[in-house]
Write a structure and sequence with these properties.
Largest sheet of chain A: 3 strands, antiparallel
Structural class of chain A: alpha+beta
Oligomer: homodimer
Number of helices of chain A: 6
Strand content of chain A: 5-15%
CATH topology of chain A: Arc Repressor Mutant, subunit A
Largest interface: A-B, 51 and 53 residues
CATH superfamily of chain A: Winged helix-like DNA-binding domain superfamily/Winged helix DNA-binding domain
Distance between the termini of chain A: 44 Å
CATH architecture of chain A: Orthogonal Bundle
Helix content of chain A: 40-55%
CATH class of chain A: Mainly Alpha
Chain lengths: 122, 122
DNA sequence: CCGCATCCTTCTTGATACTG
DNA sequence: CAGTATCAAGAAGGATGCGG
């Protein structure tokens, strides 16, 4: 550690970007967050229907991971049939500017690649 | 296809978020972009020194992928010893707002987790 | 100095079937 | 409705050593 010679050096322990990407990286987590932001509150099968291609396993795992990291809250209603609602926590909402920036960048790029694409929502 | 009933539905072909994360996801690509943004132009070994923990393979692969996706430009000088400089392209620069938003979110979160952390740069 | 080739390990994602 | 269990496959990440 000696002094401040190594200021600015990145490693896996102090790198904000590695840290952040570990939380929101992967294939489905950002799309899930984005859908929750758009719809405020969604049930498990709402998400599943909206995220075409996602499997139960991936949806369950992604939601659990997001919940454990405090980005998503899970509210369970004790009824039959079961009802579980997901929504963004405050910390999740704080990520929205980043999500929007990623979306805007990606959408513009994607549209340039494929001019027929007009309805991307996620 | 029928009609527009499925507007807003996400799949892997039209989902901007999946598309974007495929380009910038993974462990090292965002940290590399962030360092290039901070330093404008960096040589291969500059990056390697700054991204502690990265191996040649991962740095090479990540740079190549970013270059192929048009986010990073690679300028090779024909000299001995070799000199190669990397920097962000216009499209890479367009991602900076997203990078900043991710950084700000992650930094605040990380600082709350670990109050001793004051010097995170990446 | 700037990488690539090879080989190996681990993590992520997924298909399918089943349950309270 | 909201998930789990199990098994399988692929992708990502990494160690080591070599080469122009």
């Amino acid at each position: 550690m000696s002094q401040n010679k190594e200021q600015g050096v990145i490693n896996e322990k102090n790198c904000v970007m590695i840290y952040s990407m570990e939380i929101i990286g992967g294939k489905w987590r950002v799309p899930i967050l984005w859908k929750l932001y758009q719809n405020k509150t969604m049930r498990y099968n709402d998400l599943k229907r909206n995220l075409v291609g996602i499997t139960n396993i991936m949806l369950t795992r992604s939601l659990k991971s997001l919940e454990e990291n405090g980005l998503v809250s899970r509210k369970e209603f004790n009824q039959i049939p079961p009802r579980v609602e997901y929504s963004l926590t405050d910390n999740g909402l704080q990520l929205v500017p980043a999500l929007e920036a990623i979306f805007n960048w990606g959408k513009e790029r994607m549209t340039k690649e494929d001019m027929t694409l007009k309805t991307a929502r996620c």
